[in-house]
Amino acid sequence: MDGSASSPTGQSPWMPFESRRRARDEKREAVLRTAVALFLDQGYHGTTLNHVAERLNITKPALYNYFRSKDEILYECWAIGAERVDERIDEIAAAGGTGLQKLRKLIIGYAEMMTTDYGKSLVRFDVRDLTEHNRKIVRLAKKNIDRAFRDYIGQGIRDGSIRPCDVKLSAFAIAGALNWIGHWYMPNGALEAEAIAGEFAIRLTEGLAVKSTRKKAGKPPVGKCKSRGVSR
Amino acid sequence: MDGSASSPTGQSPWMPFESRRRARDEKREAVLRTAVALFLDQGYHGTTLNHVAERLNITKPALYNYFRSKDEILYECWAIGAERVDERIDEIAAAGGTGLQKLRKLIIGYAEMMTTDYGKSLVRFDVRDLTEHNRKIVRLAKKNIDRAFRDYIGQGIRDGSIRPCDVKLSAFAIAGALNWIGHWYMPNGALEAEAIAGEFAIRLTEGLAVKSTRKKAGKPPVGKCKSRGVSR
DNA sequence: TTCGTATATTACCCATCGGTAATAAAAAGT
DNA sequence: ACTTTTTATTACCGATGGGTAATATACGAA
User: Are A130 and A74 in contact (CB under 8 A)?
Assistant: First the structure.
């Protein structure tokens, strides 16, 4: 709230040796932001708690004021991503529409998530690094996400907006293509997050949709979205 | 060759306390088979060399007769998978055909690889666990695989078998869907490897192909391949 | 000031695990 | 039989890194 440290992006609330009075939650979040970035960059096992602490201008034991263990930090990073995905699914479910419309919204929302750190953590962190308890929660949440894809595809088949196909495999294929974004996407790269999401929504569904959204006029169909200056 | 130990799958050539006279290469391979299975099952960092040795009825230092380090074992597992993929790519390139035909062959071959241990290692192992030297080799090989996808798509667009699209993103989408198989496929599960490969070849290209391979006759198009008894 | 609480630091513990040294026991060569 | 080479074993080292104990410092309240 105060402007003592006005650095651009996700900075440490602990200033080198002065006013370190921030709300507890802000600090917790700062730990998670730093941790998730390092985990993604160096890998979970390649990141020590000293690294995390150092980047925050504190020492390792200070982290234990906010988290009980390293794997708890990992889990909470993961949980934030899951929570955000769930929110999007809820919004989509509430908005209504055909199965295909919902599926496209889910593809766009999920693809955009995959370009964020917390989104990436959903697919790049290894569940085996979690405690048995947290692992169960993670698996359950993943199952729910998978079910959303299957539900929308199944619904689309029933309402006629999606052509009959193997629901399970189609959901796997789409989710796989999207999850993989979390492995290759780099911010400030050639591709914009929204452009990717839009293109994927078209590309992944045109094989499923009964009729293309594009008018079957003159030239062959091409994705509609905004700036798409790739390939030639 | 001899039948002293005729166990079904990838067994240890080191028998508990008796005739341990096998060729060196066979033992090397046995180490890799065991290692890759354990790495996939428990994770690289969750697997100790003692685990690997124990399962082979030997002790840890014996492994160092065949490999210089743990990460060398990881790398060699990876290299076997890469080699097999490259072979398939070479076969496909040699066989000729339209871009779409080549792409479908690549999808099928790559999908089948993703259902094997060495194939999974291509996408589930973390390159950061390798030495700088090996990491470069891995990255280069991955680039080559990606290039094959892009080449076939680009070629298909040029020869008219694939509709114009963003080559880069389409390749990412297809490769992502396929790579993800390495994360969810379980042998002896409900899905057969060949069935998955065939379905993916259809599902991932029907959005790209100018005209469906299926005759647009009576009932809606459904994958052609062999036994495909999933969904209803 | 003084107490209580929250938060940070320094110093340390210790289990794990990759890797090595010294050596024993087979296999292979002569 | 004998030496040599290969391959295995037992015993150990040493770095790494998660986690803890004891303690110091800052903050809010009275």
Answer: yes
Do A29 and A98 lie in one domain? The reply is: no
For the four alpha carbons of A92, A93, A98 and A99, in that order, the dihedral sign comes to positive
Shared domain check, B145 and B82:
yes
Are B176 and A176 within 8 A, CB to CB? yes
The Cβ-side half-sphere exposure at B202, using a 13 Å CA radius, reads 21
Indicate the Cα dihedral angle B131, A177, B81, A135, nearest 10°. Answer: 70
Rounded to 5°, angle at Cα A196 from A221 and B114? 95
Give the domain extent around B181. Answer: 78-205
The pLDDT, as a whole number, for residue A90 is 97
Q: Are residues A86 and A38 in the same domain?
A: no
Give chain A's domain count.
2
Q: Does A58 share its domain with A122?
A: no
The CA distances from residue A132 to A20, A128, A145, B46, B232, in Å, are 36, 8, 20, 14, 35
B163 and A CB contact within 8 Å:
yes
Q: How far apart are CA B135 and CA B124, in angstroms?
A: 14
- pLDDT, tens digit, 9 for 90 and up, residues B112-154: 999 999 999 999 999 999 999 999 999 999 999 999 999 999 9
Contact with chain B for residue A82, Cβ under 8 A: no
Tell me the nt nearest to B62, Cα to C1'. D8
Same domain, A172 and A75: yes
Query: For A153-198, how does the pLDDT look when each residue is reduced to its tens digit (9 = 90+)?
Result: 999 999 999 988 999 999 999 999 999 999 999 999 999 999 999 9
Count of helix runs (H) and strand runs (E) in chain A: 9, 0
DSSP annotation string for A58-91: S-HHHHTTT-S-HHHHHHHHHHHHHHHHHHHHHH
B200 touches chain A (CB under 8 A): yes
Q: Are A33 and A108 found together in one domain?
A: no
Are B57 and B95 within one domain? no
Residue range B184-199: average pLDDT?
96
Q: Within a domain: residue A16?
A: no
